[in-house]
Design brief:
alpha/beta, single chain, 6-stranded mixed beta sheet, globular, Pyruvate-ferredoxin Oxidoreductase, domain 3, 18% strand, 10 helices, binds iron/sulfur cluster, 2 domains
Amino acid sequence: MYRIRFHGRGGQGIVTASRVLGTAFFMQRYEVQDAPRYGAERRGAPIFAYVRADHMPIAERGPIHAPDLVVVADDTLVGVPAAGVLQGLGPDTVILIDTTETAEVWRDRLNIESQIVVLPKPTGADAYEPHFFGTACTGAVIRLIDAIGLETLDRAIESEFDLKGPSIVARNKEIARAAYDAMAGTEIRITEPTARDELSNAPGWIDVPREGADISAPTIHAGLTSVEVRTGLWRTIRPIIDYDICRHCWWVCSTFCPDDAISVSDEGEPVIDYDHCKGCMICVAQCPPHAIVTIPEVEAAATDTSHSTVTASTLRGVR
Ligand code: SF4
Ligand code: SF4
């Protein structure tokens, strides 16, 4: 049975990737399970999805704890313990990381027994939007497992994206094939692992001790630790306040921001903390005079918008 786990962030197509891979396996006459596991359900939050595929009925249930292949669509998650990327990795596990860094860098950094391969993330003009990361990973996985033909992958993509129109289908096929080609030099191949007795046998009864209710309480060792989590790192679009239009009503945007990322200066001006603004655009929707505009993060990164005193008018001038 193949046991494959995908890790990424909400909005990167991870659930779709596992569904496309599951459909492709199914088209190759495998028995299949594919399912996502969400944490905080919002864009940018760590999520994982998993696929089991076998020629026999699958008795295992629940998340995969001992994967054959771990696919990481967002390399910033590797060092986030809560994301669980390294959970259950053994010497036979292959970990595929979609990254701009080399496999050697990751081997030095992680120092684990598992085999590490990288899917080179395209940059510059070849870069694609984050919501295609999952599709790219699926193309790379097809190359590594050697169990599914490219034509089958195309049919699985058509089945998944058909309702979104031919251009979306074509773009996903193009990205999946490019990732497949990018893995051509990788010698690692994952052949269908043989059954593991300890996982295939029915479990016996065990006595579960009765615990006090406090065992389920979270362990928090210090206050204000969430400040260290820079949720702004995974934003794909950015709100910009146009101070020429802002009426300094002082409370609407700062009150509605769910991450408390807008403060009000002593002069009564709203200021966005881009380290913690996650790009949900609730402030854009709520501002009465429409003083907050949205720009793509890639565009903002190319411009000096590191603090919110850059106005939308200024930005429009730059653009
Ligand atoms: S809600 Fe709009 S008008 Fe009010 S302070 Fe925020 S940006 Fe300015
Ligand atoms: S987009 Fe606006 S509302 Fe959303 S987190 Fe950023 S500042 Fe807050």
